[in-house]
Amino acid sequence: MKHPLTFFSFCPRCGFSGFSENDEKSKKCATCGFVFYLNASSAVAAIIINENNEMLLCRRACEPYKGTLDLPGGFVDLNESAEEALRREILEEIGTEVETMQYFGSFPNIYPFSGFEVHTLDMVFICTLKTDSILAPDDDVSEAMFIPFDKINLDEIKLPSIRKAVEKWLKFNR
After folding, report:
1. Residue 49 sits in a domain of what CATH number?
2. I need a surface site. Which of 95, 97, 107, 144 has the fewest CB within 10 A?
3. Which of 21, 63, 99, 143 is catalytic?
4. Domain of 140?
């Protein structure tokens, strides 16, 4: 795919068409001097383990990678913390609330969307759900299920960052 900055031809500040490469991660307007840096978008995901030592995995209802396995989570909205985003995403995707969360790690990713490569930094948290939670898949999730650790097929997880996070967690917790 093309470098994401190639999609930006006009200055977002003044509209001038002389918006050109400044360096490998920015473009600069020759007219007004505005410099645009392309930084990673923030995303969050949750590793949730139940009392039977099974991991919660979701089946993606939408592209990219529709039908493959994923962790619950999604993009962080403007003016939202990572923790707020994760609470919102879990409620939207599996219909339940988070009881506790602890930071696990961050994983860079490239998320294909509308013919564009969105570079993300996926922040993963270890979460517990509120007691007596009932999973109700919705939004971007067609199915949510707890899978025993030894039955998790990493090949079914197509998002590289999520696969790495699950792989890392399994390596230290099997």
Report:
1. 3.90.79.10
2. 97
3. 143
4. 41-173
